[in-house]
Amino acid sequence: MPALPSSLLEPVWVQFDALLSERPEFDPTHPLGCHRRQIPNRVVFEHVVAALVHGSGYERVATSSCSDRTIRRRLRLWAEAGVGEQLHELALDAYDRMIGLDLTDVSADGAITKAPCGGERAGRSPVDRGKGGMKRSTGVDGYGIPLGITGATANRHDSPLLRDTFEACSAQLRRHWPERVTVHLDRGYDNNRTRDLLDELGFDAEIARKGVPAPIQIGKRWVVKRTNSWMNGFGKIRRCTDRAAQIIDFYLYLAATIVTVRQLIQRARTLYRWHTRPTTRRLK
To answer: How far is CA 36 from each of CA 17, 24, 29, 58, 200, rounded to the nearest angstrom?
Structure first.
């Protein structure tokens, strides 16, 4: 069974392939010019998606057509080239042109997941008895489309990560903020540091107050909770076993891209017609 339905995997792969540099069939640096053929990017990409969705180790997702070492080498090259961030920007641009981003109401929140193997993004988790954990801060639009993601250790507070979350948004998006933007935050951001940052950015703030039960003042920030749930549906995000920050960021942006494209297809299904258009909300 494929890790993702073809109606979702194919558009992501087409954009991903367009960002990759061409690779010769044989390694030109080989002294005899007779090196083995290089594994196609499509084959490696499918193995990377399988690792992201299932959260399995590379030895488990490796097959006779693609070894775990090939997955690691190609993944490192893609992460160093920033392909994940570029892919997410393309997905956001396509969503904005076809559906439209709701930037008048944005929200942000942090989520803590497991990081049992340590690494650059692992720290003592305050919600898991001090075990290794990773935190990601996600900013979303009014519907829950991820705009920017920042990774950190689990023992970091949400409030200091808010600036990095907004700076992680694409440069094109930061230049086209509406005149009036309202940021919806939970009570963890109820401090002067957050309010000074929002005043600096020119955003209005709707922050939950400390001491008031959350269901009474949930407001419009529930969408970021839903997005965090979508992101936690990926095994590699839910239990990160990679140690390098670049690899972790690549997986975060790849997961955000898949979330964005999935919502784009589901919302465009009733507005547009194309020959591979799914007939139901459940992508096949």
So the answer is: 22, 11, 12, 21, 56
Cα separation, 252 vs 152, in Å, equals 12
HSE-CB at 86 with a 13 A cutoff on CA atoms is: 13
> Which two structure tokens, joined as six digits, stand for 52?
């992201």
In the three-class reduction of DSSP (H, G, I as helix; E, B as strand; rest coil), residue 214 is classed as helix
Q: Which ranges of the chain would DSSP assign to H, the alpha helix?
A: 6-19, 41-54, 58-61, 68-80, 83-98, 162-167, 171-175, 192-201, 222-232, 235-238, 245-268
Residue 274: per-residue pLDDT: 80
| CA 208 and chain centroid, separation | 26
Two tokens at 37?
A: 């053929």
**What residue ranges do the domains of the chain occupy?**
101-242
pLDDT at 224 (0 to 100): 95
Mutual angle of helices 6-19 and 83-98, in 10-degree steps: 120
CA distance 47 to 87: 18
Helix (H) or strand (E) holding 107: strand 105-114
180 within 8 A of 204, measured Cβ to Cβ: yes
Considering the entire predicted model, what is its pTM? Answer: 0.92
Residues 6+ apart with CB under 8 A from 67: none
Note the CATH number of domain 101-242: 3.30.420
Dist CA 203 CA 183 (whole Å): 7
Report the b/e string of 16-35 with b at 16+ CB within 10 A: beeeeeeeeeeeeeeeeeee
The Cα 191–Cα 185 span in angstroms is 11
Q: Write down the pLDDT at residue 189.
A: 93
**φ and ψ at 180, to 5 degrees?**
-125, 115
Query: Which of the residues in the chain have pLDDT under 50?
Result: none
